Amino acid sequence: xxxxxxxxxxxxxxxxxxxxxxxxxxxxxxxxxxxxxxxxxxxxxxxxxxxxxxxxxxxxxxxxxxxxxxxxxxxxxxxxxxxxxxxxxxxxxxxxxxxxxxxxxxxxxxxxxxxxxxxxxxxxxxxxxxxxxxxxxxxxxxxxxxxxxxxxxxxxxxxxxxxxxxxxxx
Length: 170
Prior knowledge:
Layout: H1 2-19, E1 30-33, E2 38-40, H2 41-44, E3 52-57, H3 62-72, H4 75-82, E4 85-90, H5 97-107, E5 112-115, H6 120-124, E6 132-136, E7 142-147, H7 153-167
Parallel strand pairs: 3-4, 4-5
Antiparallel strand pairs: 1-2, 1-5, 3-6, 6-7
């Protein structure tokens, strides 16, 4: 009985660590592309050695849209300098998912965009508030994360992207 209780306590401890965001690799979770096809998160989050920015957002989230629009203005330069890839994960639910594709066209975003309709990836990565931005190395390992957006955050993000592009780490 004593061993059983110890095992249960250990299981809860590991679960708490996993949910706190203390993970290294992106979990393999099903998400959808803009054509409604199911893909696995680990398959789309690959960029060789170049950094990856993973941004959780929603069409109804004004700070999310502001952040992604601010990055849009400099994204081409970032890519030329660092090879960075931005992947935007919409957390719009199934009722709003049909709005995502036309919304993106209206914003003219050139990012890779996926939809996490059931919030499986969101939960797996412990994303509670959006915008929630992760910086990963090209292998899909989480190096940094940030919640919220204020103007100028994209400059701080670029500094980190440059470091990851140069050293592969922070």
